[in-house]
Amino acid sequence: MLAHEQLQSGTSLLDLRIATSSARPLASHALIIVHGLPRAMGMGRQAAGLLPELAEHMATESGWIVATGTLSGVGGSTGTFSATQWRADLKTILDRVDEGERKISMAGFGFGGALALATAAEDERIRGVATFATPAHLEPWCGSAEDFRRAVQIAGVVGNERDLLPAEELRDDVFAIDPLVSIAKIPPRRLMVGHGTEDIEIPHSDARDLVAAAEGRAELRLIQGAGHQLRADPRMVATLLGWLDRHR
After folding, report:
1. 49-101 pLDDT, tens digit each
2. Closest to 178 measured CA to CA, from 122, 115, 87
3. How far apart are CA 176 and CA 246, in angstroms?
4. What pLDDT was estimated at residue 25?
């Protein structure tokens, strides 16, 4: 079953979908799936398009509660992208999912993985994080400040142009997140780092750098022949389901 809600996060109104299973209910376990930052033209409205379906599938197969929200400026959510706003959005979603004694984990794709690591580094409610195609080094991922701001505009994650930060400020706000520093703070909580070996956007060596920063206390899963878009890859789904199953 897939329920739809809306959450207020500052001035943004976020779309949230929560999937549950009637067949294998494990109401004490919850997974939050975090999408990445789209970089292609018009992808802001589609960036999280497959995630509700993925959430429903994961809930059915695992019995976990699985939540996925679209962050500011993405999909049907209002607002404008900034790293600070997205971190606030993710905390709003976490606060909504955190009920009773739930054991909460996060799975993030691309920049969403960096957000999940940064959130878990500061919040002990998160019991584990899985990342997929996540950059370890945000400076080469961003590129120049002007190019990065232009990519954000082209992707369409800007609700109001006046709310979009100036180029240098926008990029520096992203740099305030350091995936290598974040992941080092998470063990002994569980970690998994997944990456496609043919990812041309973010080299799979970044996955090894993340594991090294965690002093090897993270599972490394390299998906042979896979590119950057892992959300629909059945091997990724199987890898994530196996990780959930081992941590009931």
Report:
1. 678 889 999 999 999 999 999 999 998 899 999 999 999 999 999 999 998 78
2. 115
3. 33
4. 65
Task: Give CA separation, 191 vs 100, 143, 151, 173, in Å.
Answer: 23, 28, 30, 25
Question: Concatenated DSSP letters for 97-157?
Answer: H--TT-EEEEEEETHHHHHHHHHHHH-TTEEEEEEES--S-HHHHH-SHHHHHHHHHHHT-
- Residue 69 lies in domain: 2-245
Cα separation, 149 vs 215, in Å, equals: 34
pTM, two decimals, is: 0.95
Region label for 63, one of left (φ > 0), alpha (ψ between -120 and 50) or beta (otherwise): left
**Among all chains, which residue has been given the structure tokens 């063990």?**
187
Q: Domain tally for the chain?
A: 1
> Which domain CATH number covers 58?
3.40.50.1820
Do 129 and 179 contact (CB within 8 A), yes or no? no
